[in-house]
Design goal:
Elements (H helix, E strand, L loop, with lengths): L2 E4 L2 E4 L5 E5 L8 H14 L3 E6 L2 H4 L22 H8 L3 H13 L3 E6 L2 H9 L5 E3 L7 H8 L5 E4 L5 H13 L5 E6 L14 H8 L3 E7 L5 H8 L4 E5 L17 H18 L11 H4 L4 E4 L14 E4 L10 H4 L12 E2 L6
Parallel strand pairs: 3-4, 3-10, 4-5, 6-7, 7-8, 8-9, 9-10
Antiparallel strand pairs: 1-2, 11-12, 11-13
Length: about 350
C-alpha cells in the first residue's frame, strides 16, 4: 500500500485525510498573531501547520521593471513589485522555532516550504519532519536535490507544471534520496475557481506515478473542492488559513477562517468514511429498517376457501409478509383457513 510517515502520523488510502493549515503571510508580521493562528488551527482539528521559509532577498531582487512589477489587473497584489510583496509576506526566521514549538505542544506537526538552499539548511537545524515544495519551485532541480538529500518525506505541489516536467522533477527527487513522496494537485491562481481546479487529475496522477500519495493544495473559496478531492483519492489537503479575512493580509482573501477549517476537518473525514467499499445487500445497520419494506398483506377478513384477489390483498408496509415479487402469482389461489385483515401473508395461508 502506498503510504508515507510524517512524525507519528501515517498517511495512506486507509487513513483519514491529513489536513494542513498553511499560515503563509497571514500573520501580518505579528508573532502574537502567528501563535494565535497556530492555536486556532489546532482547535479546529488540523493535523499540521505549514510555514514558508524565505526572505525577500532569497526570493528575488529589488527591481522595478518587467515582470518584477506586479501589474496584472486580476492580481491581489497589483501595484507592488515582487520584493515588496515578499517583504510583507515572509515569516521572520527567528519566529520559526517558537511557532513550531507551539504547534508541537498542541499536538500538531509543524513544517515549511523552503525556497532556497539556505532555507533547507535552516530547517534541518529545526529538525522538521517533512518538506513541502511549492508549485513555483517544483522545477528548481538544485533545490529539489537539496531537499531530497535530507532523506525526509516530501510533499510537492504540481501547479504550473507540464506532465513531462513533473515526471522529471519526481525523478530528481527519487534519484537524490526521496523515498516517501506526495504530489498535490494545485491550481496556482489566487483565488482559484472551481472550474479550473480539475480534480480528476488526482486519480490520474496516482496512476501515472508509482508509490506516491496524492492530495490537493487548494486555493478555491470554501471547502467543496477539498471534500470532493477526498472522494477521488486525496489523502492530503492543504488550505491557507487565517483568523479572519476581514483582518487583511497577503493571502487572506482565499484563506479559511477557523469555523471553516473545522468544517473541512469534519466533512473531509465524513467523505473518507463514506467512501467505504463495494457493498450490496442488507447491512447490519439497516436490519431494523428492512422490516419496513413493502410486503403482501391481507387487507379484508377472508373465509376458508376464499380466493385471494386485488380486493383482499395489497402490497403495503411493513415487510413481514411475502415479498411483492410473488403478488401476481398469488391472485386466484385460495385460503387454507380464515384470515383476518392485517395479517402478513405467508405460504402457510394457501
Amino acid at each position: 500500500m502506498r503510504k508515507m510517515k510524517i512524525a507519528d502520523r501515517v498517511i495512506s488510502k486507509a487513513e483519514k485525510p491529513f489536513i494542513i493549515a498553511e499560515m503563509s503571510g497571514n500573520h501580518n508580521q505579528s508573532l502574537d498573531r502567528a501563535l494565535a493562528i497556530v492555536e486556532a488551527a489546532a482547535k479546529a482539528g488540523a493535523d499540521a501547520i505549514k510555514l514558508q521559509t524565505y526572505t525577500a532577498d532569497t526570493m528575488t531582487i529589488n527591481a522595478r521593471h518587467g515582470l518584477f512589477n506586479i501589474d496584472d489587473t486580476d492580481s491581489l497584489w497589483k501595484g507592488q513589485n515582487l520584493y515588496e510583496l515578499y517583504q510583507k509576506a515572509y515569516t521572520p526566521w527567528d519566529w520559526h522555532k517558537p511557532i513550531m514549538d507551539r504547534a508541537k505542544e498542541l499536538g500538531m506537526i509543524a513544517f515549511s516550504s523552503p525556497f532556497d538552499a539556505t532555507a533547507v539548511e535552516f530547517l534541518e537545524e529545526l529538525e522538521v519532519p517533512v518538506y513541502k515544495v511549492a508549485s513555483f519551485e517544483n522545477t528548481d532541480h538544485p533545490l529539489l536535490k537539496k531537499i531530497a538529500q535530507t532523506g525526509k518525506p516530501v510533499i510537492m505541489s504540481t501547479g504550473l507544471t507540464r506532465l513531462a516536467d513533473l515526471d522529471e522533477s519526481v525523478r530528481v527527487l527519487r534519484d537524490n534520496g526521496c523515498k516517501e513522496l506526495a504530489l498535490l494537485k494545485c491550481t496556482s491562481t489566487y483565488p482559484a475557481s472551481a472550474a479550473t481546479t480539475n480534480l480528476m487529475t488526482i486519480p490520474h496522477m496516482e496512476q501515472m506515478f508509482d508509490d506516491i500519495i496524492v492530495g490537493l493544495s487548494d486555493h478555491t473559496m470554501g471547502i467543496g473542492a477539498p471534500v470532493a478531492a477526498v472522494a477521488l483519492g486525496a489523502r492530503i489537503i492543504e488550505k491557507h488559513f487565517t483568523l479572519s479575512r476581514a483582518d487583511g493580509g497577503v493571502d487572506s482573501t482565499f484563506s479559511l477562517e477557523p469555523h471553516e477549517l473545522e468544517s473541512l476537518v469534519v466533512e473531509s473525514q465524513r467523505a473518507f468514511e463514506a467512501i467505504g467499499k463495494v457493498q450490496y445487500g442488507i447491512q447490519k445497520s439497516e436490519q431494523n429498517s428492512s422490516r419496513f419494506k413493502r410486503s403482501v398483506y391481507v387487507v379484508k377478513d377472508m373465509a376458508a376457501g376464499e380466493s385471494f384477489s386485488f380486493d383482499n390483498l395489497r402490497i403495503i408496509r411493513p415487510g413481514d409478509g411475502l415479498s411483492p415479487k410473488y403478488f401476481e402469482g398469488l391472485l386466484g389461489k385460495t385460503a387454507r383457513a380464515a384470515v383476518k385483515a392485517g395479517t402478513p401473508l405467508a405460504w402457510a395461508h394457501f
